[in-house]
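Notes on consecutive records. When two proteins share a document, each keeps its own sequence and its own token line. Never mix them. Below: protein one.
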Amino acid sequence: MTSAHNVTVNGVSLYVEEHGAGLPVVLVHGGTISSAWWSPLIKRLAPRYRVIAFDSRSHGRSTNPSGELSYELIADDTAALIAELDLERPVVGGWRDGGQVALELGMRSPGIARSLIVGGVMYAFQGDEFQKVTRNLFCVDKDGRADCDAMEERNASVVEYMKALHSQSDQQWRDIAQKTATMWLEYRDLSAEILANVREPTLVVSGDRDEMIPLAHTLDIHGWLPDSELAILPGQDHAGPLTNPATFAQAVIDFVDRH
């Protein structure tokens, strides 16, 4: 079974796709992209589960009249979507920003999920290295504004991909670039004390060659979560779930079938 529809929650219209039947698995995509990124993984999970993938507010075919964007807001949208679709304790998972959202969901809406899958996540957002990477990627000026024209010139392939996924208007990708840059630059660091509030069984996943997420972050987050398992995907970089979905899918299936 496959269906596509829009669901209104928290003042935004979210584009939602559903594939397959059975235990619900809600997928939250990463930053600057859309739920289309999940397609290779969905093909491997849908024969086994009811997979729900949605475009986060502002992204893809979803709206965002307020213009606000944060991990907390997307987590609240996810919780509201689960309620609106009448899902009974689904598995909720994500990669990169989607993984951060899954962690926020665990803290903000305890008990709503059966278990969590957090992939490609980190904790030192306020560290000098990540701040520098973010400012370079989005060509952020001293006032915190993303220079989208400079970004398009410096990171043409990134912008081309963003445009393909955000075709509502030429302004859409620019708005997402600014909102995402602000979200990354302002998000708090995570710690053992903060993550102690995540009580759901959690699968922490990373590639052993992830060029964006230090392996130490993955190991620390695994150690800080009260009930977690660790999966290190061999030979995979930050785009692993897309370029090699079989390994990631098997890790997800092994975990979900036990929780």
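Protein two starts on the next line and is unrelated to protein one.
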Amino acid sequence: MTGAALAITHVPFEDMGAWAEALAEKQFTVQSIDACTAKLAALDFLKPDLLVVLGGPIGAYETEVYPFLSTEIVGIRRRLEARLATLGICLGAQLMAVALGGAVYPGRSGKEIGWSSVSPGPQAAACPAVSELFAPGVQVLHWHGDTFDVPPGAAHLAVSRAYPNQAFAVGHHALALQFHPEVQAAALERWYVGHACELGAARIDVAQLREDSRRHAPLLQEAARRLWRRWLDAAV
């Protein structure tokens, strides 16, 4: 398998992480662009074989404050309508939900930041690759305050204790994950600095979060690699 992937970032340190290695194994070329400064209106969202829309600390509904989000949503919608391979992580998943007619809003349970497991949603069988994350001992990194409604026509794949809507899929071509299976423990040091104000406001113990990451990231990385390979084989 070979191809071209485009990653859309919203902050530099929330990148492809371990999944860049998996794409390299499949001989994909990966280009990254910064949504905040790129000329999204001129971007052909249909051109890449794979589009990955990554996370960030803003809300998918904050289009008046961050106008580029409106252009990004339109581009994602066009790609999804064309049934082209698209993956969204955290904010990326929320933007996919909006593009598909779903709602995104601040979660009533507050911030979900830290490591915990996810469980199968009512339609988890629609995307067998996600079952890799339900294996015993696997925990994923959650880092969000907003949540989404599963959009019309999408399969509800995963739940957590804090928020029931953690992942959805549309056909074999679109996968949206609220959590972060792409992370690597060492690279998370940039997150602790970049999100220092958010962590402080939420009274998150960074030392404990670092220790949790050290313990849980290696097993997640292996599970996520299997997820990524299986999903790519079906989607691209």
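For the record: Residues 74 and 99 are 7 Å apart (CA to CA).
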